[in-house]
Known about the structure:
The structure holds 2 protein chains of 2 kinds.
Chain A (H helix, E strand, L loop, with lengths): L9 E14 L2 E14 L3 E6 L5 H8 L7 E6 L2 E2 L5 H11 E4 L11 H11 L5 H11 L15 H14 L4 E5 L7 H18 L2 E5 L3 H5 L3 E6 L2 E7 L3
Parallel strand pairs in A: 3-8, 3-9, 6-7, 7-8
Antiparallel strand pairs in A: 1-2, 1-4, 4-5, 9-10
Chain B lengths: L2 H12 L3 H37 L5 E5 L5 H9 L3 E13 L4 E9 L9 E4 L6 E4 L7 E4 L1 H7 L6 E4 L2 E11 L13 E5 L3 H4 L9 E7 L2 H14 L5 E3 L1 H4 L1 H49 L4 H37 L13 H27 L18 H19 L3 H32 L5 H13 L1 H34 L7 E6 L4 H10 L8 E11 L2 E2 L8 H8 L1 E6 L7 E6 L11 E5 H7 L6 E6 L2 E13 L10 E3 L1 H4 L5 E6 L6 H10 L4 E4 L1 H38 L2 H13 L4 H39 L7 H28 L2 H7 L1
Parallel strand pairs in B: 3-9, 6-8, 15-20, 17-19
Antiparallel strand pairs in B: 1-10, 1-11, 2-3, 2-10, 4-5, 4-8, 6-9, 7-8, 12-21, 12-22, 13-14, 13-15, 13-18, 13-21, 16-19, 17-20, 18-19
Helix pairs in contact in B: 1-9, 2-8, 2-9, 2-10, 2-20, 8-10, 8-11, 8-14, 8-20, 9-10, 10-11, 11-12, 12-13, 12-14, 12-22, 13-14, 13-22, 14-20, 14-22, 14-23, 16-17, 20-23, 21-23, 21-24, 22-23
Amino acid sequence: MNSFSPKKDSLFKLKNVNKIVTSPEGMLTILSDISFEISRGETIAIVGASGAGKSTLLGLMAGLDKPSGGEIILNNNNLVALNEDQRAEIRANNIGFVFQSFHLIPSLNAIENVMFPLELSGKENARHRASEILQGMGMKDRVTHYPHQLSGGEKQRVAIARAFAGEPSVLFADEPTGNLDAKTGKNIIETMFALNKTSSTTLILVTHDKKLAEMCDREILLEAGKLVSDKAIQK
Amino acid sequence: MNTIRFASKAFFRQVRSGEVIVMISAIAMAVASLTAVGFLTDRISLSIEKQANELLAADLRIRSPEPIPSGWVDEASSMGLDTAISQSFPTVIYSSENSGLARIKAVSSKYPLRGQVRIANDQLSDEYPVKKIPNENEIWLDESLLYRLNIEVGDSISIGNSEFTASAVLKYRPDQSIGFASLSPTILMNIESLPATGLITQGSRVNYSLLIAGEDDVVESYSQLMEDIIPNSARISDPSDSSERTNQAINRAKQFLSLTIIISVFLSGIAIAMSARRFMKKRMDMVALMKSFGAQKRFVLNTIVIQLGMIGVVGVFFGSLFGFLVEGIISNLLTDLFVSDLPKPGFKTLMIGMLAALILLPGFAFSSLLQLSNTSPMRVLRKNVNPSPPSEIIVGTIALISLSVLLYYFVRDITLLSIIVSGMSVISVLLFYLGQFMAKTLGQLRGGAGASWRYGLANVSRRGKDSAIQIVAFGLALTALLLLTFIRTDLLTEWKKALGEGTPNYFLINIQPSQKEGIKEILESSDSVAPDFVPLIRARMTEINGESVQERVYPEERGSWLANREANLSFAKKMNPNNKIIDGTWWEENYDGSPLVSIEESAADDMGVKIGDDLTFLIAGEKITAKISSIREVDWNSFSPNFFLVFSERALESFPASFISSMYIEEGDTGVLRELQINYPTVSVVDLDPILEQVRQIIEKISIAIQIVFLFTLIAGVTVLFSAVHSTIDERRFESALLRAVGMKKKNVLISLLSEFSAIGLAAGVLAATGSSILAWQIASRLFEITYIFNLSLWVLGISSGIGLVCGFGYLASRKAIESPPINVLRNN
């Protein structure tokens, strides 16, 4: 079931989004006719089985890729009409990421990893800001450690610090606890939600984790590339 | 943000990462091999040229039948050049009892300007070099003259109106060539003594020579200046004209050194391309991440280019340093081998390195970097999103153009370059398609093999294009190395053959027909091989196709000189086996028709004559005209009597001829020589050993230089093999760990790796051995003009070394991956 109704203070609008790719077997529909809207400050969980198209949808919403059809509007910018560089500019100013496999740069230490997007978008005082946020996450003693010297939980903390350091208006998290044990995962989620609350960031999560999904305001369920439910979560 | 600042920070942060180090190493290796090989080649060439200058006793010689005008000498002196004068002519000399024909060489005080004269105090004493010329009333004379005149050192002899003391035995002078004219026994005399002899009168047949030495560019300017001034009868010679034999060796050596430069650059290019590929693969995640954080494409591209520039600078620095050190070490090790007053490598080294990096880096890394900058940000979510590679044709063309530009700068030998570049291009394409074919077919064949082998062969198939690219890299590196090995072997064999045991070391000249039998008997009685007697007739050419040789216009200055000089003619039924007909035909053995003549190739070219032309000669007052029936290529390396002009037997047999012969006499077997000289004092016995020794020395230097340069290139090739294996090392490391984690034994992991490398090595080896054989044949026959003999064992060696090297380096590069605990690898991945 698709649900698309205009909302106040809308951040994201997706209208009839499709993604079709060519494969050796022929044309393959990854996403079909997806429409929904997200308001500022909302927390959304995109759930579904493997291969349902969750990551593809996340990539399209973040402007990492272009849909085959439909419209994706972020902050009144139609991502579909923008070229790669224009989409990159929007990401630089609005979007943060947390990935399942952390994606820390192995040759950079913790603080340098956090500084990386700040430097990339030309923000002043990158080191100071990175240090501040790492300290706030209890990583004071780990700032000069390299990724291979950090545990999985610590790596993800650095990744979260990196995502929030640029104060994005929307944060995408792709299975943020997928590589962590239950206890560490729980800690990470708590940290992420706490930061989200203080910074009023819109949080869009792709997850298999039921408990994590239940912590969000809304759950969007995908099946075989189709949106089958979009419901508010009762807490 | 500031791209330069960001790129520099990123560079310094990541400089310790593996892929950056590999890339720097590849560039450093390229620069080092170019600078070291380039400089070594320069030095060797200069050294060889300097030694070749000895063959003229100068850097430049002007020879004229007229006295040298003082203006020519003054001009040279005013340009700061050293000068010496010599006059040479035949005359009869007398002792109290005997007389003999000798060639007087009267020289001024600075003679020789290059090389040294060696003399001995008597026939039995050791020779030693001297830095002076004979005193005014003394002469130094060839040993054979002592026998002919039946005198000892210290006795006096008459030359013209003057009496001289024979004060030493003349053992060696640098400009003694083996032209027959100069093979008459020589007397070295002080030029100041010459006027008193009264031998130089109007009409005397004297060769006047002005010898010049100095800085290369000044000598060159002087040479150019004199070319416009000197009359037609005079001739300027530089070392390249000095001796066909050494000249050919020097040219071949230079070509070989050029070949090694081409191979070094080629190998460096492959190493850069392979390391750039790994650089790209390792950084795709990083670029995707940068893009996902909002970096624009231009920013990404600029960052990559700047980082690449920094990698280039560091590579050039270390490469130049290394090249400089290697060059210095080799030069120091070989001080005895090379002349010492050669310029030390300096700023030029750095410039060469920078130029090489500037051209090679974009040429070979461009496609990988372009591909890298096109990485989709979507890769942060899906690892399998890879940027599409640029077309192979574009990649190949860019690499080919950059390679050709760079190589043309270093090696201005279009034939060599075109053979290598076109040959290597064809081989690359074949290797690529062979790789793709293997990737397809091995997937089907693997069913029959054991588990480890199956997995290994499956890898070739699974890696598809990556396997094909590896086969190209391995194949090209092997082709280059095998090609160099084949050519090197051929050249060394050829030289060894030319100057090996049994090369004639004595010439017998001026043998009268009645003396032939007696000489033959002496030689046979001493177990020496009975020599062939070759007739020699002195003559002057008067007309070519009825036109006077003096008035004729020649395509080359040398043509005029050859036509106008006194010629040495010979006649024969059969052709000298060291000669080869390149145009026309040799006459039948029993031919008795009108006179025919066979002419040597370069003489025909320089005189502008062809098959069917008539040459007229004046022999002992009688005119004879012969038609050119064949043009011959002469192997001047053979050290047997060779002639520019050989007539059909009937044409010349009625003219009075003397005979010459060459023979080999073992060192120390002086009895035969003494017997010959005592019994036949009018026959000149000329010792070729000093000349042979000179040629041998040059060739030995060249051979050693070639071996050293070859070794260096070998190291470069090995680095390519290593970098090719290294380009897929991360993948292999992970796979090995995974296989071990699921229970495969270390030995079986190793077998699977080796089976993959064996398949790649076999494919690369077969094509490389075949391709390099074809290239070697082309280069040997078209450039070095030596007979290429296909060597099956070398071909087989090529294939087995292909498999061996690829497996060896594959093992070395992957060893760490196999031996480290799988958990470490898997955790770090």
